[in-house]
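For the sake of clarity, the format in which proteins appear in this thesis is described at this point. The fold follows as a row of integers, each naming the local backbone shape at the matching residue. One such record is shown here in full, so that the layout can be seen directly:
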Amino acid sequence: MIDTSFNQDDNLTTLGSELLSIGIVSARTGVAHSALHYYEQLGLIASQRTSGNQRRYPRHMIRRISLISVGSRLGIPLADIKRALEPVPMESLPSEEDWLRATAEWKRVLEARRRAIEELENRLMGCIGCGCLSMQACSLINPHDALAESGTGARRLEALVEDGAEQGRTEK
């Protein structure tokens, strides 16, 4: 069993929250130290510092980190994950109501993503199914790389995902 007790720096103790080292949090969540630093830099998670400037995470941060990790593995952008977790406080032990509010936002994010994936599937299946890549009928064709002016990447396909996310935000 891992000893997670921390008796140094009484000002680091938060009500109802045991403080854990980054090593323990990394081991419990499977998230690398560097990713935890990055999540903290983005404001997705928070830590406290000891007098020796070591990070200490409240135990309740493990659930938040686990949700970030799962969402990230599913391809959900960290900005969407951050927005979904906004109702969940970082500085204190979250209540059931905090998690219920976050769950409602997670559901909106996932529904928007599902709609975007279905739309992409429908467009791709039509194109792949016929194989013609008709200049008149195909919505994915890009003659003379005209889409380069609007940026890099698969502009039309990315727009489907962005439109789905926007639609999910407006349905609140």
In short: The longest strand covers residues 55-58. The radius of gyration is 22 Å.
